[in-house]
Amino acid sequence: MSESAQPATPVTFPPAFLWGAATSAYQIEGAVREGGRTPSIWDTFSHTPGKTAGGEHGDIAVDHYHRFREDVALMAELGLSAYRFSISWSRVQPTGRGPAVQVGLDFYRRLVDELLAHGIKPAVTLYHWDLPQELEDAGGWPARDTALRFAEYAQIVGEALGDRVEQWITLNEPWCSAFLGYGSGVHAPGRTDPEASLRAAHHLNLAHGLGTSALRSVMPARNSVALSLNSSVVRPLSPQDPTDLAAVRKIDDLANGVFHGPILHGAYPDSLFAATELITDWSYVLDGDLRAINQPLDALGLNYYTPALVSTAEADPNGRRADGHGASDHSPWPGADDVAFHQTPGERTEMGWTIDPTGLHELIMRYTREAPGLPLYITENGAAYDDKPDPDGRVHDPERIAYLQKHLAAVRRAITDGADVRGYYLWSLMDNFEWAYGYEKRFGAVYVDYVTLARTPKSSALWYGEAARTGVLPPVEAE
Known about the structure:
This protein has one domain: Glycosidases (TIM Barrel), CATH 3.20.20. The strands form 3 sheets. Strands 1-2-3-4-5-7-10-11 form an 8-stranded parallel beta barrel, surrounded by 5 helices. Strands 6-8-9 form a 3-stranded mixed sheet, with helices on one face. The chain starts with 17 loop residues before the first strand and ends in a 9-residue tail after the last helix. It is built from 15 helices and 13 strands. α9 runs parallel beside α10. By secondary structure, it is of the alpha/beta class. The N terminus is likely disordered. α14 links the parallel β10 and β11.
């Protein structure tokens, strides 16, 4: 028998590995005016003409607020062992300050109870980009007070759910909140101020630290507190070119070091200060802030989609000054006008993102070195494709199955190489409102008919469910 004809060795995961899926509140819940909920920055942004594809918004989204029991039953049917969801801050604390609205908390209590009744571990994300509009009106994330308000909100939710939810994530992808929200303006609140984006990054870090302390003050010690970073894998266009390596350093600081520096190590990179000294003096980093931010973590979440390829801007006149995070004349990279981004080679998803599972392995191993002994979770990974039902109503998505197989195999290689990866959350459980892209991009393992809101598991959902039930990656069909 030739080597190529030998049966492949099954890719098997540890028995305790968590197989989950992830969503966020504004992308799925709808019911934006029910139970005392008030507008978030994404309500305002998505209702501003020209900000989202087709002027679409999350007013109804996929109506998870009213259909959560159906959605939990579907998760259980698929065999998921965990579900990561976010809390709508303005549903729980409509003005971003003061007492909670109990009807808002009650929705999440019912959701948690439903998950536990089906044997699914809930993982709560406190903030997934939907700041209460009143806090934005008061200054938003560039204002220090927002971090203080977040700590109060964290304590409220921790007190309400901490007896039943063991896995907690303070912030999801603070890079997007800071640099897409306040730098390039392609995300809510749509501001384009480089200095404000750096202020926002610091106050998001402070919110994480203060929120972590607030959660621990009201929850059982057994609970895990983490955050999810969309840390970039940044590679040079020319590995031997020192100017391209300097470009990598600059983007790595702005994508990664600005968050993991203070959170994991208690300090911002000196090279970050040097690169941004003409934009900000960092005087808003006050005495005691870095100690407050540098709280011990119980785990770290990593979100990964595609690597970045950069050079000095002079290296290639066709290089782009922005990196594809939506169309904008403003860069999300303050102090990096001399850096160009390039399309990495290879097959791409509907987002135009190159499929490169080696980047996920590289990212995991980096944080295994950055934070030795800290458990890791892949809290987002997935792909958008142009999914359509067959005439018989089934949704066949072999491209997503191949994507998942390759990326999960990369996770398993990292475990073999010594990484302590304890779970994987597929993005996303179901098709939903994809931020500025509206409903154009489908990331879900479950297809949603946006007219009837009927849910149909795609073939990738069935494939992933088999992996979740058996702990072994099923075969991938030959295309």
